[in-house]
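Input record (one chain):
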Amino acid sequence: MQVLTESKPTAAPTDSFPINGTDHLEFYVGNAKQSALYYQAAMGFEWVAYAGPETGVRDRVSYVLQQDKIRIVLTSALTPDHEVARHVAQHGDGVKVLALWVDDAEKAYLTALERGAESAFAPKTLRDEHGEVTLAAIKTYGDTIHTLVERSAYNGPFLPGFEARKSVFPVQPVGLKYVDHCVGNVELGDMNRWVKFYQDVMGFKLLITFDDKDISTEYTALMSKVVSNGNGYIKFPINEPAKGLKKSQIEEYIEFYRGAGVQHIAVATDNIIDTVGRMRANGVDFLYVPETYYEDVPERVGHIEENLEELKKLNILIDRDEDGYLLQIFTKPVQDRPTVFYEIIQRRGAKSFGKGNFKALFEAIEREQALRGTL
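The corresponding structure, as predicted from the sequence alone:
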């Protein structure tokens, strides 16, 4: 099975660091087998590939899960002194790899190093009966890395060393389509440094800036800048805390994650009402926004195709920009530490990130912080 290469997008002709899209996201977790069951049962991902002792890998296990163009890899160590085990001890379950699909991994890697990136590992080519894949990686914020994946000569289930698998119970997809954007949290004063990294090293453009007036409540605030690659398929908002009366969600994240890292992953759907309805029925927890949020939606957003009462019932947020409107909702953290969570988003033309929902969203997060005693 060849994945994600059915209809190859065209990188922008002026793109100085061509990227075709997101290849996969790899989480380092404490128990990959049990985490994989959550993604299958609650979020509708199919189990498609596996690596571990049964496939000749002695030190770790990895489960590859897929829904449409989204691939998630869950990896656990089999020994306590393994790099993966140390990562989990430090950060809890979290995103280690934001993997990017490129045409030439070695060229992209060397270009990045020439522009000031730090190597995570040098190019290497893996082979099996399905072909070959070339991988290389550079470091980004915290302990996160970008693996550059060149897979045009490969038609296996994921990567060499992995064997195809199928879910052992009937998985029902919930309608998740592709990664819309991935958000990173960094320490105070580091946002501009990492924005510059993506601009200088990977040729990204600054898409939008939010300051503490845009993203604040009575108690907390943060600042954010969004960078995007040439074809717009990769978008990375980067957040840092701003001064407030109480501890912000970014500070809480950094405290529990023990450093900078991926805060949330936004995944797109074509029918958010159906997707969120299915996810709620499967037991996924979402942040709560009070019913009063919906009182001014018609005046603030204008006409929308969806039934407002259905959106209200499911607690889905709505915002509009000059290109259209969007619908979005945020899960609670998907592991025990209050760190990584998911955003479900449906774009009806809008290209922005829901600025009109920031206050309601962050008040919802503050309510969760208060319950944890960390506000």
